[in-house]
Structure formats: structure tokens, C-alpha cells
Amino acid sequence: MDTQGAFDSQSTIKDCATVFALSTMTSSVQVYNLSQNIQEDDLQHLQLFTEYGRLAMEEIYQKPFQTLMFLIRDWSYPYEHSYGLEGGIQFLEKRLQVKQNQHEELQNVRKHIHNCFSNLGCFLLPHPGLKVATNPSFDGRLKDIDEDFKRELQNLVPLLLAPENLVEKEISGSKVTCRDLVEYFKAYIKIYQGEELPHPKSMLQATAEANNLAAVAGARDLYCKSMEQVCGGDKPYIAPSDLERKHLDLKEVALK
Q: GB1/RHD3-type G domain spans which residues (predicted)?
């Protein structure tokens, strides 16, 4: 999920943190779209859910989030770090390096980012060109876009969207179905409706609640489908004693 475009001059810190937290907790690959560089306050936006991640790791003993991809657009320093993934990873390693002279909070954010995400990446994207940036009539024509930008975009898109690179969403180490994801959305939206940002422990509890609801829905669905095969409308008559036995057997299977 790409968060760029979600913020404007009317957005509050809570708005930004909420969008970041919701998108990170519900996506398998979070694309953090930034302009020109990674600033310190950009990393601070990650503080809320890296703290959630720290608590989650105490519960499940594994990294709670999957992939965080920094996408730096309008990169102006290709002579220091080349465009694309390779230059981006070199740049990211420098920016996320923990140093002794850093404030403790800055060190902690960097440590938590490394600990919370299974994969970290960074892609440096050149400026699309003056015709794109300054022409109010620009309509997306490729001939008006700089060649460097088009070349790097052809590298970036398959990196994220090629079938072999698509990543299934996982929560607590288990793959999430579309139906499960609805339960997680419901649980997370509840805790973000208040005036204050939720405490990371509330986020952890919401995840556990959604996890339980998704498991219940899955078990019920399995049971109903199995029973349909036994006594559905097009099935022959079955004796009550046989039906009771099948019910108990399939109930046990569904609850496993």
C-alpha cells in the first residue's frame, strides 16, 4: 500500500500516524513514498507501529510486519547513490545506521524498524522532468516524461507487482484471506475512532480479537460446507443418529 497523497496541509499528526498504522498493519508490502530524501521526522512517523511491533514480538516471537519499501522520488544525488534498488539499499543502510552520538529515541526507532520488518528496501526514483512538473496541461503522455524516469519505473513496477514478487499478507505468521482481512479492518477502525492515538497495547489486543473472529468465521464456514455435503437440499434422507454422529465429527474437524 502506497501512502503518498493521503496527507495535505489540513492533516494532523494523528491523521498521518493513523493512515500509516492502518496501512502497515493491513498490507504485506508498505511503500513509504518520500520526496528527495529520508528526513528524521519521516522515521518518526514509524514510531507508533514500531512500538506495536515490539510488543507483538513479545507475544509471537517473530517479526510482525513483512516488507517496508522506501520509495524516494525526485532523487537528485545519483552521483552519490545510483538510481534504482541497488543505490537505494546502499543509501538506506546509511540512513538507518545506529550511531553512538544519536539521541536514544533516534537509535530506538532505527533498531525497531530493523526488528519489526522481515524485509527492508529502498528505491531511488529520478525526477520525471520539467514538462511533467511545470506544465498544467500534462496529460500523462510518455513522450513528455524524462527517459531516466521511464527506465527506472520499468524496473520498479515488476519489483512490486510481477506475479513472482507478489507477497501474501500474513498476521502472526498465518496467511490472511480476504474474509480475514475484513475482520482486521473492523477491529483496527474501532480503536482509531477516538480523539487520541491508541496505545500500542490496544492495537495488539485488536489484532488478537480480529484473529479470533477470523478463526471463528473460518471454522463456521468449514462446518457449514461439510454439513451441506452430508444433508444439503439435494442429498438423500439421513437417519437422525447418523446426522448427529456426522455433526460431532465435522464439528471436531472445524475446531482444529
A: 1-165
Count of CB atoms situated within 10 Å of the CB of 210: 23
Task: Name the residue with higher pLDDT: 28 or 184.
Answer: 28
Please list, residue by residue across 231-248, b when 16 or more beta carbons sit within 10 angstroms of its beta carbon and e when fewer do.
eeeeeeeeeeeeeeebee
C-alpha cell at 165: 514478487
Per residue in 112-149, is it b (16+ CB within 10 Å) or e — as a string? bbeebbeebbbbbbbebbeeeeeeeeeeeeeeebeebb
DSSP annotation string for 25-57: HH-SEEEEEEESS--HHHHHTTHHHHHHHHHHH
DSSP state of 2: B
CA–CA distance, 88 with 152 (Å, rounded to integer)? 12
Interatomic CA distance for residues 124 and 37, integer angstroms: 9
pTM: 0.71
Structure confidence at residue 52 (pLDDT): 62
Q: Above 90 in pLDDT, residue 97?
A: no
Q: Which residue has the cell 475482520?
A: 183
Helix ranges (DSSP H) in the chain = 13-26, 40-44, 47-60, 85-95, 104-116, 130-134, 147-161, 178-191, 200-231, 240-255
Domains of the chain are: 13-172 (3.40.50.300), 177-256 (1.20.58.420)
